[in-house]
Amino acid sequence: MPNKTFVALDKNPRIRIAVTKGHFTSKRIHFNRYLDIGELKFNSRIAFDVAREIAVPYINTTYVDAIVCMDRMEIVGAFLAQELTGTGMNVMNSEREIQILTPIMTTDNKWIFPDNRRDLISNKKILILLGSATDVRALAALCECVKYYGGLIIGISSIFSSLPCGKCGGINSLFTADDIEGFVSYNADQCAICKEGVPLDAFIYSEGYTLL
Ligand SMILES: [Zn+2]
């Protein structure tokens, strides 16, 4: 595949997405760019920076009881909880406790939480933390799951989002599709790249991709 280019956050150029052109698929969506956010999730120093940026819309305004981490965002989630509960003027959650939660996918593709953790969600203020928000159906299913357990969704944040607006309200995203030159995504059954007969390059998942 061709070389990567990088798209960096203006406020902190260390936070940058590596962009590769090609034809990629996740479970339901096809893309003409692979956005590598692995460094932002798994490099502890950069993940810390990412968490500080993600904290901005909430730190002085919003109570948070739990962060529901998807797409292997637990490292960022832990740093985010630390940031949100730090000492400082007007830090809403100062010296409070924030739980880091991740739902489990059942064999019939539904998100659940373990019954012994229900108390951490029921009537609690939940911040949903995504790596990449690109599939509106997947996000809606996740929001439904949190609501089913009685959670109150107070915000959705992601590193990247191509969704203009989630069903549960807007997404606070560090990067959007507008930041990635030429970025296009399609539902798998309506992919314009497939219709041109171009084969898929790779399957995308939370940890990276596998060439096909
Ligand atoms: Zn395609």
Please provide a brief summary of the model.
This protein has helices at residues 38-42, 44-55, 74-84, 136-148, 192-195, and strands at 5-9, 12-25, 29-36, 66-69, 99-101, 104-105, 111-112, 125-133, 152-161, 172-176, 185-187, 202-205, 208-211.
Walk me through what this model shows:
The chain is an alpha/beta fold. The protein contains 5 helices and 13 strands. It has one domain: 3-Layer(aba) Sandwich (Rossmann fold), CATH 3.40.50. It is 21% helix and 34% strand. α2 (44-55) crosses α3. The chain is globular, with a radius of gyration of 17 Å. Zinc ion binds next to α5.
Q: How would you classify the helix and strand content by structural class?
A: alpha/beta
What is the beta-strand fraction?
25-35%
Q: What overall form do the CA principal axes indicate?
A: globular
Radius of gyration: 17 Å
**Largest sheet data:** 6 strands, mixed
Given as residue ranges, the uncertain stretches (5+ residues, pLDDT < 50) are none
Q: How widely separated are the two ends?
A: 12 Å
The CATH class, by name, is Alpha Beta
CATH topology tier name: Rossmann fold
Question: How many individual β-strands?
Answer: 13
Assembly context of the chains: single chain
Number of discrete helical segments? 5
Catalogue the ligands. Answer: zinc ion
Mean pLDDT: 94
State the helicity in percent bands. 10-25%
Number of domains: 1
Helix and strand succession?
EEEHHEHEEEEHEEEHEE
Summary tags:
212 residues, alpha/beta, Rossmann fold, six-stranded mixed sheet, binds zinc ion
